[in-house]
Amino acid sequence: MEPVNSTEVSEFFLKGFSGYPALEHLLFPLCSAMYLVTLLGNTGIVAVSVLDARLHTPMYFFLGNLSILDICYTSTFVPLMLVHLLSAQKTISFLGCALQMCLSLSTGSTECLLLAIMAYDRYLAICRPLRYPVLMSHRLCWLLAGAAWVLGLCKSVTETVIAMRLPFCGHRVVSHFTCEILAVLKLACGDTSISEVFLLVGAILLLPVPLAFICLSYTLILATTLRVPSAAGRHKAFSTCSAHLAVVMLFYGTVIFMYMKPKSKEAHISDEVFTVLYAVVTPMLNPVIYSLRNKEVKEAARKVWGRIQTSR
Question: Where found, per UniProt (predicted)?
């Protein structure tokens, strides 16, 4: 018998829910429907933000970026996951695994930064209203959004390259439905300490730090809002922030629950199901939250839809 190559792995097997065929058939229509809603909802947010001139503001520019991020994030794994749910061939090439890992890490990292930028935008709009047009200029919006995308991509490329250069000693069964970096690192037979250090530093910089910045921004917003003399003014200030705050709580709440809870020695299928649902549900709910909690988005959507109907 020929010895197993200690470094080269041409493809990985994504175990996912392969031991639960009934669950696979249940998840397929559920995830398909949620993915479709995610695509339609977020595409609608982007289209309305572009087509309605009243929404050409920093707040909706960043919201459009968030919607594009959600489309990209779900598209990195959901289409392949849907194919695997109905197929016995659940493999992914080495390069495809690296690409999926990199893109999912990049979009997740960028969303952490973008949510902090959106909180800063709301802080300037409410606490510095007279200087807001100058402080949050069109150029600065592009710089902040561009920096978030570039930093997220650079971080993810670095982490992916370090992880995928490790020897796997022929191990190819990933106990996950996607090429999640922690699941892939469990297959490595070399020293993973460098990769783990990069992941730890990245997690600290992109989870507690942006979250602390968001909390500080909303503390200052709350203090400013409570000083507003009129009830109508306070209601308007709260309504412009409530949607973003709900998205922040949803995003960080699920991430903290998944990665801060005590780890069991054996992977449970319930954890895998929850991971699938939160990964698909969160991007789906973002446009729903913004459309339900924001009158401007609803009015703009009705206006654009009416314009489309009239042009027919």
Answer: Cell membrane
**Selection from 37, 159, 162, 41 nearest residue 105 by Cα:** 159
In this structure, are residues 247 and 286 in contact, taking their beta carbons and an 8 Å threshold? yes
In this prediction, residue 107 carries a pLDDT of: 93
Four-point Cα dihedral 164, 167, 173, 176, nearest 10: -40
Output the 3-class SS for 186-219: CCCCCCCHHHHHHHHHHHHHHCHHHHHHHHHHHH
What single letter denotes the amino acid at residue 219? Answer: T
Q: How far is CA 200 from CA 6, 197, 205, 206, 251, in A?
A: 27, 5, 9, 10, 19
pLDDT digits (tens, 9 = 90+) for 85-116: 988 889 999 999 999 999 999 999 999 999 99
Strands 173-174 and 91-93: unpaired
Task: Output the pLDDT for position 233.
Answer: 66
Q: Which residues of the chain have pLDDT under 50?
A: 1-6, 265
Fill in the amino acid letter for 34: M
pLDDT of residue 268: 62
Provide the token pair at 111: 């969303």
pTM: 0.86
CB under 8 A, 24+ apart: contacts of 294-298: 294/239, 294/240, 294/243, 295/239, 296/54, 296/55, 297/45, 297/48, 297/55
Taking a C-beta distance cutoff of 8 angstroms, is the pair 47, 305 a contact?
no
Three-class secondary structure of residue 220 per DSSP: helix
Q: What are phi and psi of 36, to 5 degrees?
A: -65, -45
* pLDDT of res. 5: 41
Question: What domains can you pick out in the chain, each with its CATH number?
Answer: 11-300 (1.20.1070.10)
